[in-house]
Amino acid sequence: MFAADRCFPKCWRHFAGRRWMSMRSMVAMPPDDAARLIAPLFERTSSLLVAHVAPLALCIFLAGRSDARWPVIFLVLDLVLLVSRVALVFTIRRRRDPSPEALLRASRPYFGVGMAWALSTGAFCGMCYALLEDEVSRLLAATLAMGTAGGSASRNAATPFFAVAQVAALLAPQVAAAVLHGSAHWFQAAQVLIFFVALCSIIRRQYADVRQILAARREKSELAQRSEHMARHDTLTGLPNRVLFRERLNEAFAKSRRGASCALLCLDLDHFKEVNDTLGHPVGDALLKAVTTRLLDSVRETDTVARLGGDEFAIIQADAEQPTAVTMLAKRLVEALGTPFDLDGRQVVVGSSIGIAMVPGDGEDADTLLKNADMALYRAKAEGRGRWRFFEPEMDARMQLRRALETDLRRALAMGEFELFYQPIVAVASRQVSGLEALIRWRHPERGLVPPDAFIPLAEETGLIVPMGEWVLARACADAVSWPGSPKVAVNLSPAQFASRGLVEMVAQALRNSKLDPAKLELEITETVMLQDTEATLTTLHRLKALGVRIAMDDFGTGYSSLSYLQKFPFDKVKIDRSFTQELGRSPQSNAIVRAVTDLCAALDMTTTAEGVETEEQLEALRRKGCREAQGYLFSKPRPAADIAGLLDKLDRESRAGALVSSELVPDPLV
Ligand SMILES: Nc1nc2c(ncn2[C@@H]2O[C@H](COP(=O)(O)O[C@H]3[C@@H](O)[C@H](n4cnc5c(=O)[nH]c(N)nc54)O[C@@H]3COP(=O)(O)O)[C@@H](O)[C@H]2O)c(=O)[nH]1
Questions:
Q1: Which residues line ligand 1 (CB under 6 A)?
Q2: pLDDT tens digits for 161-195?
Q3: What is the CATH number of domain 415-602+635-659?
Q4: Cα separation, 416 vs 409, whole angstroms
Q5: pLDDT tens column, 91-140
Q6: Peptide bond before 360: cis, by omega within 30 degrees of 0?
Q7: How far is ligand 1, taken at its centre, from the CA of residue 493, in Å?
Q8: Per-domain boundaries in the chain
Q9: Which residues does 113 contact at the CB level (< 8 Å), separation at least 6?
């Protein structure tokens, strides 16, 4: 067929200014499309039979009508070509390789034989016109040439280079014969030429229609493929999403039933939220892409890496016979993600935690396996991040306890089972109460009084701390207005409350409702809040301060204790953690730290309050170091709200008595 293309004059190929009938136009198109155009040629053989039977019949007719022997030669040639063509059609239909490329290769000889048929039939019709003097035979030959040309044009319009070549081969001898016959036949030659041009135009139009249909079909199938891909892949990273991941996990289960094993590793990025919040979402997205590259570099081709959402990734490690192989992969992943990322010249440090569940063993189906790997991940995170943990059945029991506690907490909040206890804060010099810290308790119907350590961490994780904190604030403000002597009330704010919206409005509302003087409310925040170190945190702190309330830094000395926090925000008070107070007099380091913090805060005009004061010796040491306030069991344990008026009265009397005793002990200089 390439030969047919080559032997066709260039001017014809440029018919109407386009290379539409060029073989190259077909070679250039996607093999799928080219194969679709060619395939129908081999599907129906009836039109082929007609194309061969008509010249055969004319040969037989002429052989009986004239003495010429040459029609017999054409008869034999036509029969040979018919048999070869039909044989080729069946060979092509039965080819082993169904690919479009194979079809294109296999169809080449067919086009060659097709051209041979057109040339021989055209020559036969031309010779009839030129050599026979019988008008009927000449008419039959002209009709046969034009009829087969019309049939060929319509049958092969999808392969225009072939259709035009065949039509030309069938009609050219007719034109030549008519021209040679003399001027009386030139009208016939002109008619055949016009017929040829008309057929070319029909072929061209049909081909254009077919191409359009093919393009629309291709676009539709590409669209379907794209939406199919999008439905099963994560758009940001290109990794399999939850849907495809589930399918792969189910496949892994099916393989495990045939004896194979695998491991599921659920991976979470540590501090991803901070990166997103502080550096913005574009950096967060770039980080996720960089993480994806590192994950893919760390696994084998047979493993599956998927993004399940946010900063959650999952890996199916195929053929993980031994836990050691899984441990090695987990170690590799933690190390890979622990190395700082360079994102547009910015160094970003995150880490990862991994929970692992094994197949078979840790779950009978995908849901259970995922749940168990998640539980192991939860444990890995709870143990300090940057770690991996294998699932253990006891984790399930713990998780169920945790869930039960969460449900119980929600119920307790709705039923009003929380209470506030208060612990006094006293001035070191005078022992007078300057304020009281509100400390939440849960009066559980079965478990009795539950301390905050048993439920605050879970309330923070689940977000329940936000409504709980709102209640604490409203209750504490309402209680404080009734206290004799108007001491301040200190309320703990959790980092989760800072992250939630509407904190400032909530504080303002509590003050409005209770009519408490804002200067009497002290909000205690921990370093974790400052660690969130975003502009938003500082703005919130300044807005709170603008309400007139006081802000205290709690548990100072425990976490990172960055002095820059004190520089970034003008705290009213710094509370020294009880771990330092309790070592006073025993540890030179604690003595030095308490002294340093006290001096620093005095210089910055901030009050220092020492927590956990239990002995007179500790109080005396604090007095010597210039600490202004103290809080601890020495003065009182946290007490229920109902006891506070009495407690304040008692402590007031004690401080007056203490003052009297100390003034009696001091000799009067005037005496
Ligand atoms: N976000 C909120 N957190 C709260 C709230 N209420 C309490 N909490 C936090 O829970 C933690 C534990 O509190 P609690 O069991 O009440 O313990 C407090 C005191 O009882 C204890 N303390 C005080 N003096 C002494 C002492 O002399 N010895 C000793 N062993 N313990 C003592 O310290 C806790 C108060 O600590 P702090 O808050 O740092 O001042 C605790 O972290 C609370 O913050 C709440 O409503 N919201």
A1: 423, 437-440, 451-453, 456, 469, 472, 492, 494, 554-555, 578, 611-614, 631-633, 638
A2: 889 999 999 999 999 999 998 888 899 999 999 99
A3: 3.20.20.450
A4: 10
A5: 998 888 888 888 888 888 888 999 999 999 999 999 999 988 888 888 99
A6: yes
A7: 12
A8: 2-226, 242-393, 415-602+635-659
A9: 81, 84, 85, 88
**388, 330 in Cβ contact below 8 A?**
yes
Which residues pair with residue 307 across a beta bridge? 313
What are 42-62's pLDDT values in tens digits?
887 788 888 889 889 988 888
DSSP track, 81-114: HHHHHHHHHHHHHT-S--SHHHHHHHTHHHHHHH
Residue with tokens 């945790």, as numbered in its chain: 402
Find the length of the chain: 671
**ipTM of this complex:** 0.95
Would you say 550 and 521 are in contact if contact means Cβ atoms under 8 Å apart? yes
Ligand 1: which residue has its CA nearest to atom 26?
612
**Model pLDDT, residue 663:** 57
The token pair that represents 615 in the structure block: 């002995």
Confidence class of residue 28 from pLDDT cuts 50, 70 and 90? low
CA distances from 626 to 286, 429, 596, 609 (A): 51, 9, 10, 10
Q: Return the bridge partners of 276, or none.
A: none
* CATH code, residues 242-393: 3.30.70.270
pTM of this structure: 0.58
Q: What is the residue with the minimal CA distance to atom 1 of ligand 1? A: 494
- DSSP helix/strand/coil, 657: helix
Secondary structure of 474-539 in HEC code, one letter for each residue: HHHHHHHCCCCCCCEEEEECCHHHHHCCCHHHHHHHHHHHHCCCHHHEEEEECHHHHHCCCHHHHH
